[in-house]
Specification:
With about 130 residues, the protein is α/β, with parallel strands linked by helices. The protein has helices at about 20, 25-35, 50-60, 80-90, and strands spanning about 1-5, 40-45, 65-70, 95, 120. The structure holds 1,3,4-trihydroxy-5-OXO-cyclohexanecarboxylic acid.
Length: about 130
């Protein structure tokens, strides 16, 4: 089962960026623990700070992978292009946020992606299992 973990802008700074909100672990370390824990899945990871590259990646995997776990960062709250890309592919996409965006600023309460995603998980930080 092929699953893509897709991260959007500024998530390359995890570990350094606002650690009170996002924790102090780098995504690379976290990804290693995910691969160990879920060795039955073929996990791939891609991060980009560029909206079009995220659209391209969704198109690339969206007719062959079994799932995409997508943290679109701030593009969540702005991007019609990413919503259209998710709508246009066959692979189900799950929207993820490390923080509980509903406890934060008002502009983070709106997601263009939630209506076109299979589901949403948010507010649990970088947990490997619950
Ligand atoms: C985030 C929440 C977004 O509002 C923010 O712009 C991010 C990270 C999260 O994982 O909590 O970059 O997606």
């Amino acid at each position: 089962m092929k699953i893509l973990i897709l991260n959007g802008p500024n998530l390359n700074l995890l570990g350094k960026r606002e650690p009170k909100i996002y924790g102090s672990e780098t995504f690379e370390d976290y990804f290693e623990s995910l691969k160990e824990k879920f060795s039955e899945f073929e996990l791939e990871y891609f991060q980009s700070n560029h909206e079009g590259e995220l659209v391209d990646k969704l198109h690339e995997v969206g007719f062959s992978y079994e799932g995409v776990v997508f943290n679109a960062g701030a593009y969540t709250h702005t991007s019609v292009a990413l919503a259209d890309a998710i709508k246009g592919i066959e692979t189900p996409v799950v929207e993820v946020h490390i923080s509980n965006v509903h406890q934060r600023e008002e502009f983070r309460h709106k997601s263009y992606l939630s209506p076109v995603c299979k589901g949403v998980i948010l507010g649990f930080g970088l947990l490997v299992t619950i």
